[in-house]
Amino acid sequence: MKKIDAIIAVSALAMAITLLCSCSDDGDKPLEFLSDTYVATTGNTLYVDISSGNGKYTVMPEDEGIVTCGYEKLNNREFITLYGNREGKTSVAVTDRATGETAELTVYVTKPYCTMVATYRKTVIETDGNDSVDTRELEEKLRLESPFKSETGYMFHLVKNSRTVYIADYGTYYYTGEYDLVKEGDTYSLTVLFDQGGTTIEKQYSIGSDPYMGNGFELFDAFFTDESDSGMAIKTRTSYEAFFVAMIEDLTGKFSPQYPGLQYAGIESHMELIFNSRLDPKFLE
């Protein structure tokens, strides 16, 4: 009986140790990020949210010439910081020192860019009262004139000191094209050129202050008149703040021959400005 009791005691002790070890392991959190690919810009710091981890990390870039890495804790949130040194692609290894778990992140560095997100669009038609202008018919033609699948949700990424524009249409269609931006007094003239299924699309817009949804024109102007290649580190988003410009496409000349009495026809869009953010890595792959 004593021998059996001893065996039972040893088994109970082993089980207790196992349970203790299991409880300790359960306290460790897995190392997780929202994505495994990120886009930083030259001269600016990108803050990458650590979704889950244990508070102590080693961050090692494959090529420090492309990106400099760090760690910061802000408002009880943990971030890996990625500062863009020059354009290129590299990988960053993030190791959780509590568990030894390592996450490999792919990092692209591009020139700074301005993202313009369509948040609201309306059709404006003005006539001299001539009955020959069927405004509902014309409004439908203006809607179909747009190459974008949705009235909102599409975005332009205008790369600074470059003619490259990346266009994301509702997260489904992606186009890379060219743009030309010319300042004309208190407005900018924007021309966008891209290929859509073998058809060359050219769109011309006027960019100015938005009288209804806040004035972001000064930020837009400051970003593009600053000539440095590293750009300005402009932060435009806080908990309650957003900045907008008005983007107007004047289509009067296109449709006036078909509609006698047409004085003005155009599409007015409210575009939210976000700097150095929201570029999908798909454009750079």
Structural notes for this entry:
- The protein is α+β, with helices and mostly antiparallel strands and 285 residues long.
- Helices cover 17% and strands 48% of the residues.
- It contains 4 helices and 16 strands.
- The chain has helices at 2-26, 135-145, 217-225, 252-255, and strands spanning 32-33, 37-41, 45-52, 57-61, 67-74, 77-84, 88-96, 102-110, 113-127, 154-159, 164-169, 173-184, 187-196, 199-209, 243-250, 262-275.
- The strands form 3 sheets. Strands 9-10-11-12-13-14-15-16 form an 8-stranded antiparallel β-barrel. A 4-stranded antiparallel sheet has the order 1-3-6-5, with no helix packed on it. Strands 2-8-7-4 form a 4-stranded mixed sheet, with no helix packed on it.
- The protein starts with a helix and ends in a 10-residue tail after the last strand.
